[in-house]
Amino acid sequence: MAVTIRDVAKAAGVSASTVSRALSLPDIVDPCTRERVLKAADQLGYQPNRAARGLITGRTGNLGLIVPDLANPFFPMVIKGIQAQAMDADYAVFLADSDEKPALEIGLVRALAVQVDGIILCSPRMSDAELREAAGYVPVVLANRRSGLLPASLVDNAGGLREAVDHLVALGHRRIGFVAGPRSSWSNGERLRALRAAVEAVRVELVEIGNFAPQFEGGVAATDATLASDITAVITYNDLMALGLIQTLASRGIEVPRRLSVIGIDDIPTSAMVHPSLTTLCVPKEQVGRVSVDLMVQLLGDPQADSRPQRELPTRLIVRNTTAVPSF
């Protein structure tokens, strides 16, 4: 039979109401009593009923998570970090996929808001105004997106792309392309701004190509425009696009990196497995997820706090086999 709150109370020598307070409102219980209750609960293997606890605390014990594309290998690692950190904080996670459709995101927020204590929006495509609307329904933390004063877990696009440009310039490249992702992507805008600053600092030319879908097929679609741009090296919005570009070039007998050096962004697992292995900017995906949960726990603990932290995590270039000196 399942262990009940009365079993814990009997083992700890306190009332059932004291056990309830010790588990749901620990700050109002004497520390020694709380410790005795927690020890008894642990020894008996007691699992509190989330629904019952929610009636007392007004909290569900659930977090929502909305991502733009579960098929993109970038997001499962972020989800893994969120899941692990949420479990440590005693939260369950409800997951939704907006399928790269910005119009769906605010609807998903509304649907999840009544079931969760807060929502983490990972790389959301919605506008800043829509993000403010979302935060009016439920506490919101952003992952891989900055918007106003909302708490956010970010990555250092500027530092990483500066390293990528410096690497290409050191090899001798002077005309570098950027195959852009979706116009609605905040990360795309950030990466483009970072690249513009990086090439200006070293006085080389940046050729902006596209916008394309942030998928393998987007890289395939970008191939003709990339070849027509008369560049010797290209950085793509993400690894999936880089892989689509490289495969299409190979099918046409165009060698990477002899004819064109290619750098991706994200360091998804496949990038090290293909031939040639992909030079890429490593984004700390799992850590982005973990930090997002930390920020959410902090926000839920003090929703009236003036501070809304935005934590930026470092990136680093991983040099593999798709970059070399230009052949012409």
Largest sheet: 6 strands, parallel
- Please count the beta strands (DSSP E, at least 2 residues each): 12
Task: Give, in order, the helices and strands.
Answer: HHHHEHEHEHEEHEHEHHEHEEHEE
Oligomeric state of this protein: single chain
Helix content: 40-55%
Category from helices, strands and their pairing: alpha/beta
The stretches of 5 or more residues where confidence is low (pLDDT under 50) are none
Across the major sheet, the strand order is 2-1-3-4-5-11
Distance between the termini: 76 Å
Strand content: 15-25%
Name the shape in a single word.
elongated
DSSP summary: helix tally: 13
What Rg is obtained from the alpha carbons, in whole angstroms? 24 Å
Quick check: average pLDDT? Answer: 92
